[in-house]
Amino acid sequence: MASLRVHDPPEAMRIFTACLGTETNTFAPMPTGRRLFEETCFIEGGTKGKPPSLFAQPMVVAREEAEKRGWQAVEGLCAFATPAGITVRKVYEELRDRILGELKAAMPVNMVMMSLHGAMVADGYDDCEGDLLTRIRAMVGPKVAVGAELDLHCHLTNAMVAACDVIVTFKEYPHTDVKERAHELFCILADRVEGKVKPRMALFDCRMLGIYHPTREPIKSFVEEIKALEGKNGVLSVSFGHGFPWGDVPDASSRILVVTDNRPEDAKALAERLGRKLYAMRETTQPPYLSIGQALDRAIASNVAPIVLADCSDNSGGGAASDSTYFLAEILRRGGPPTAIGWFWDPGAVDLAFEAGEGAKLRLRLGGKVSALSGQPLDLDVTVVGLKRAMTQPFGGGIGHLGDAAALRTGEVDIVVNRKRTQVFSPNPFEAFGIDLARKKLVVVKSMQHFHAGYAPIAKDILYVATPGTVSPDFHSLPYRKLARPIWPLDPAPLG
Ligand SMILES: [Zn+2]
User: Fold this and answer.
1) Mean pLDDT along residues 458-484
2) Are residue 252 and residue 304 in the same domain, yes or no?
3) C-alpha 152 – ligand 1 centre gap (Å)
């Protein structure tokens, strides 16, 4: 065999890496099409020198780690869309087939490392990642190391596990550990390539729907326990896939995934032990949510200000329209205490405000347009107090785009309306319009948890509010059809 001749240089290892993802809210009415990928993150020809983006980071880590070892890295497409409704079938198939074509052109490879979300649903595909990974495995064969890094808001499926050697999910929310997890995944895959380990995975389904904050108990200690298990007794990695409760697919549930070095029985036993532990404490895991009425009673009666109220169910980061009016309508009904509220995604209202110009007074129909869960539009007498083109806000070390935006005032209530659907990450846009949040009683943000870093420093208190909406934390209110039952909290004790 020519390759064994002593004078041949050792053949360089070769890896392939790419990204395809979004987090699909199957209850959201806005389709996820090609433009949404192009507007959010669409990197061709490699990530080197490109602006930072969360889901591109695993590709960057894969390239840098490969280069450190003198291996070749081939980067395919990096495409990610901000969460919305079901992905258009031909858009998913085009992006998938493009990545598969790039992989084929890169072969032979020793390793494939993918950055995926894990909750992408397309028309005709309830498990896009399982579909993509299965096709990758079929193409490269059983000897190549295949792995994926997923957001923790993923549906971990048997198809994904069957296709991969290793899957690693984020552990933190807000997602601050993307690079760390990428490094962990790369190292296990590299050890597999070099024959140092034989990863074996096991999955346990906790039969739970939930929102879990690793920043607070009891989830904080649970995640610490998981971390402490890694690197000992043959345990290579443990992931807690929270699930994404607004994706109505059979596999939407919280799951534990354990990867061991060639100890399949140990992996199974540990995944079940951890899964049953989470299940046993299920009633204490959820953040405390208030109704709009409860939240306003408490905030208005408080003798400190401002109180920050999270309009969790209209969080565009979970696929909501960000144009719901329930909160604003109730604030106005209560006489409109000094309030700042945003960002309303209403391109039509933005156009009318720009047409009227700064200082203009007009009667404007606001919000309540996109979703059946957006509430009724509000007809308001407003003053246009500010207009800005291409507005931005800081986000995760990068920049988030609001597009053209207007500040509207009715009484003592200031409303920011914008053109590009995005959740509230930072107070900067309010401040850029000269809205002094310190002088407001209420600051209402359309966001579930990512607002926290920017608003905690100015908030005298933070209340999480379960408004009606597309990302409602009240799972009983959602019209599930495909979700496998029984599942907690819809069914009280699915595991007995
Ligand atoms: Zn997430």
Assistant:
1) 93
2) no
3) 6
Query: 235 CA to middle of ligand 1, Å?
Result: 25
Total residues found in the chain within this entry? 496
Per the structure block, which two tokens stand in for 108? Answer: 């032979």
CA of 244 to the centre of ligand 1 (A): 8
The alpha carbon of 133 and the centre of ligand 1 are apart by a number of angstroms equal to: 20
How many domains are contained in the chain?
2
pLDDT higher than 80, residue 398: no
- pLDDT per position as a tens digit, 247-289: 999 999 999 999 999 999 999 999 999 999 999 999 999 988 9
Identify whether the C-beta of residue 180 lies closer than 8 Å to the C-beta of residue 146.
Answer: no
Same-domain pairing of 20 and 159: yes
Residue 234 shares a structural domain with residue 265: yes
Q: Are residues 302 and 280 in the same domain?
A: no
Domain boundary among 284, 305, 331: 284
Q: 300 and 277, same structural domain?
A: no
**Above 70 in pLDDT, residue 396?**
no
Q: How far is the CA of 189 from the centre of ligand 1 (A)?
A: 23
> Which domain range does residue 97 map to?
12-284
What is the pLDDT, as a whole number, of residue 173? 86
Q: How far is the CA of 412 from the centre of ligand 1 (A)?
A: 35
Residues 65-77 pLDDT 10s: 999 999 999 999 9
DSSP for 359-428 reads: T-EEEEEES--S-TTS---EEEEEEEEEEEEEEEEEETTEEEEEEEEEEEEETTEEEEEESS------SH
CATH of the domain at 196: 3.40.50.2300
